[in-house]
TrEMBL record:
UniProt keywords, alphabetically: Oxidoreductase
Domain Aldehyde dehydrogenase: 50-508
A Pfam family assignment: Aldedh
Region (Disordered): 1-27
Active-site feature positions: E282
Domain of life: Bacteria
EC assignment: 1.2.1.79
Name of the protein in question: Succinic semialdehyde dehydrogenase
Enzyme type, top EC level: oxidoreductase
Organism: Nocardia pulmonis
Length: 547
């Protein structure tokens, strides 16, 4: 095992903390076998006699098996979609206020059940209790936003027709029908539900496919929606390997909402394109942070620690590249490395609020993260802290890692590592740092730090990212539920949140009315006369600013 520059410090603390916080986790009392059986019983599987082997769900902290998750076949997916479609017709006919009442109740239920939700998130994902509770809060935040604005966004809007007074045109928003929501394991509860709920509010039914590893918390969230009054059948959960059930999910949907890697997003986009249905794709990132020469490091350091290591670096918007102005670079490296090492010492595998740093979601993923860091180390990068797994705490723990000296030939330079690691780069020239920040195929998130908002804004205007956070890592944009949030370049297509995050689940219908027949030629009217009248009308409407 190679020890990092400050690895000695981390090793000492980790040994101390392991006796205090680590060790073998046991499932908390709320997570009974009866609960797990009830939740796994909600998966649509085995309906068409096609049995798949169940998936063994693992408690990440220990590697212990916690239950078997039924796996759906493509036929099960079709059956689930048919059930959703039948329920959706009735649901779409409900007045919006009656649909919204379901989510008023769901908002309260989710808040009051946050401890159970957090535990179910932790079992499958391994994150800290603090982060799991934060994740659970995303769903009420999204519900609350759409409870406030859905009536305005979805109501029909009367637009002027081509001829004032005589014609009208009205924009209506009708539900698509069946929306497929495919979600990843990193924020499993938040993404699955916060993407399904606007679809449901808009009058759709949903076929939801969570990741196998983290399906339990999603199933519990669905159960809460049913307890809040969602009509039976309207939201069905299917589980399975993506390539196995994916084509059937897309073939049976009228719209696909996908969150995951850019590679899978491309496959989903191709399938949706073939079926000529819409899709919204929220994909990966390689997000830069720029610390300008006038930034206040007392504020930057704690925020950067969260932006890099929060959720153990498994957040799509988390920061993997930090560009620091020459004037602050050395101090930044010293303080950031110390803070990362301190955080590593607060790692723990516990279902309480003491640990501040959690596990990665699986041993497989931890090995992928470790491979990026080993590749960088082997090619000459400096590992200032971390760079080691933490098996004494849990099988998928990996220490917060800080690198410098990363060069373009290293995997971590350009690929999304999606773990608790960032590289610090020194810069002197602002034009050059903008070029470097944009030198990626991704465009999900970027962060700029300065004491001068005007200065930061000038840089931000030139960054190629769908989310830009000034004096923050990523929380401000992600938590602003009123503003659409999505990726540019290869980080996505479409957006969640804001009006766009609701309207994408609808078809816009244009209903035109002509009260008097003025748009077609009158009987026996010569065409040249009709043409002259048309030209005159168009000129006058422009002059009078009517159309
Ligand atoms: P992934 O693409 O491997 O899987 C995501 C989901 O798609 C899972 O449910 C998986 O089972 C399913 N899937 C896989 N192949 C499929 C196929 N052929 N057809 C249908 N479904 C398929 O991604 P992941 O590893 O679970 O998640 C991590 C990635 O997600 C990272 O790249 C991260 O940046 C990205 N992400 C993006 C956002 C965002 O909002 N932009 C949010 C969270 C995660």
């Amino acid at each position: 095992m190679v020890t990092a520059v400050t690895g000695g410090k981390w090793m000492e603390r980790s040994a101390m903390e392991t006796t205090k916080q680590g060790g073998t986790a046991t499932l908390p009392p709320r997570l009974t076998t009866a609960l797990i059986d009830r939740l796994t019983g909600m998966v649509v599987a085995g309906t068409a006699g096609q049995q798949r082997d169940p998936y063994e769900m693992i408690e990440v902290y220990t590697g212990n098996v916690v239950g078997e998750l039924p796996q759906s076949s493509p036929e099960d997916v079709a059956a689930a979609a048919a059930k959703v479609r039948a329920a959706q017709r009735e649901w779409a006919s409900w007045p919006l206020r009656r649909r919204l009442a379901v989510f008023e109740r769901a908002h309260e239920l989710i808040l009051s059940e946050h401890e159970t939700i957090a535990e179910l998130i932790q079992v499958g994902n391994g994150k800290t209790r603090r982060m799991a509770v934060e994740e659970s809060c995303d769903v009420p935040m999204v519900i609350s936003h759409y409870l406030k604005v859905a009536r305005r966004v979805l109501r029909p809007v009367r637009r002027g027709g081509p001829m004032p007074f005589i014609t009208t045109s009205t924009e209506q928003h009708r539900p698509k029908g069946v929306v497929a929501v495919i979600s990843p394991w990193n924020f499993p509860f938040a993404i699955s539900l916060s993407d399904s709920i606007p679809a449901l509010i808009a009058g759709n039914g949903v076929v939801l496919k969570p990741d196998n590893k983290t399906a339990l918390c999603v199933l519990y969230g669905v159960e809460l929606l049913y307890r809040a009054g969602l009509p039976r059948g309207l939201l069905q959960v299917v589980c399975g390997g993506g390539p196995d059930v994916g084509p059937s999910i897309v073939d049976n949907a009228d719209f696909v909402m996908f969150t995951g890697s850019t590679a899978t997003g491309r496959i989903i986009g191709e399938m949706a394109g073939r079926n000529l249905i819409g899709c919204s794709l929220e994909l990966g990132g390689k997000n830069p942070m720029i610390v300008l020469d006038d930034a206040n490091l007392d504020e930057v350091i704690p925020s950067a620690v969260f932006a890099v290591f929060g959720n153990s670096g498994q957040a799509c918007m988390h920061i993997e590249r930090i560009y620091v102005h020459d004037r602050l670079h050395d101090e930044f490296v010293r303080r950031f490395v110390d803070a990362a090492a301190d955080l590593g010492a607060k790692a723990g595998a516990r279902y309480d609020y003491t640990p501040e740093f959690g596990s990665l979601a699986s041993v497989d993923h931890m090995e992928k993260v470790a491979a990026h860091i080993e590749d960088a180390r082997a090619k000459g990068a400096t590992v200032h802290t971390g760079g080691v797994p933490m098996p004494d705490i849990g099988p998928a723990f990996y220490a917060p890692t800080v690198l410098t000296g990363v060069t373009p030939d290293m995997l971590h330079a350009t690929q999304e590592t999606f773990g608790p690691v960032a590289t610090i780069y020194r810069f002197c020239d602002e034009q050059e740092v903008i070029r470097q920040a944009n030198a990626t195929t991704y465009g999900l998130n970027a962060s700029v730090w300065s004491r001068s908002p005007a200065h930061a804004n000038r840089i931000a205007d030139r960054l190629e990212a769908g989310n830009i956070n000034i004096n923050d890592g990523y929380v401000t944009t992600y938590s602003s539920k009123g503003t659409p949030s999505g990726g540019v370049k290869q980080s996505g297509v479409g957006a969640r949140h804001g009006d766009a995050g609701l309207l994408k689940y609808t078809d816009t219908i244009n209903v035109g009315v002509q009260k008097v027949q003025v748009m077609t030629a009158r009987a026996k009217q010569p065409f040249d006369k009709q043409l002259r009248q048309t030209m005159l009308t168009l000129r006058w409407m422009r002059k009078l600013r009517i159309r």
